[in-house]
Amino acid sequence: MTKEKLEVIKEAKLNNNCPECFNQDLNLTFYQKHTYGSFFHKITSELSNKLVCNTCHSTIYPVSWTDDIERMFNYYQKTAVPAKKSSKPTLLFYSLILVMIALVAAVIYLFISGAIPL
Which residues span the membrane (predicted)? Predict the structure, then answer.
């Protein structure tokens, strides 16, 4: 079963006014999606973001952004550098490959020694 996790790559506090409560305490967070499977750990190129007001604890969606929030978002989006897209094998993958190599080597040894006739 593959597990997905959003890793924080950039977090910024904004001094812009919240469209809901008009306080100046916003938090902008950029995430990158990581997937963890049995055999591989993959870093995807998918990026997401979330803008939250720390005072009223509401998520502010792009529909209600002001021009100032939009400008700050574009600035911080350029500074958020994601990790490169990659895939790394897990320990289970390496152990499975090792077992397969040992199994093939044992079968070849048994054929050579004559224990298993053709």
Answer: 91-112
